[in-house]
């Protein structure tokens, strides 16, 4: 799912022929672009290994990096949602995991919004959406901190750092998008093709969200049922203890 979304993002980028001075998506451009980011090695290796980077200008490199961030956020949300299906009876842990899965979904949505901002050359809004995407993992981490008995999973910590670093790189690239670009009208046939792809992927994304919502609702029902059963067992135990105490009291009275 994430790879298809990423492919769509680059199709949107390619819908506009690049014939201005900034076009030169070779290793030199990637190096120059990445030198202005916080994590040069991550930036260079990610962009250099992407097959679409040779056709990209600086804005295209930003789109590619955002697509990588979307893949990270989506896969992390799916990873966390799968943990909700574990047989564990720790309702607090599952509640926190559900909250984290939602936060990473929101991060992916924010990154997706930033792509449209880039296409509209609304760089401030793109930066704002990427900043929001970077901050959502903090909410997840803080959710674990609210319960000292819960330990923050190492794998989730690595995913958190990964998404934050990717966002930092994307923001560094956007900071340097100072080359004015006047884009020609897109090819109508290709535009229709991209629009068709976008519609299909949007429908699939919607179905995936609905599926996750149903899964979360099911987990809520399981948690409520578990809590209700636990409460019933506790009340039953208390009643048995009360009856036992009354019997002991009666026996004691008879003995006297």
UniProtKB/TrEMBL annotation:
Pfam families: PMEI
Domain Pectinesterase inhibitor residue range list: 25-173
CDD domains assigned: PMEI_like
Domain of life of the source: Eukaryota
Amino acid composition bias (Acidic residues), ranges on this chain: 237-256
Example of a GO MF term: enzyme inhibitor activity
Family per record: Belongs to the PMEI family.
PANTHER family xrefs: OS01G0111000 PROTEIN (PTHR35357:SF8), OS02G0537100 PROTEIN (PTHR35357)
Name of the featured protein: Pectinesterase inhibitor domain-containing protein
Species this chain originates from: Vigna mungo
Phylogenetic classification of the source organism: Eukaryota, Viridiplantae, Streptophyta, Embryophyta, Tracheophyta
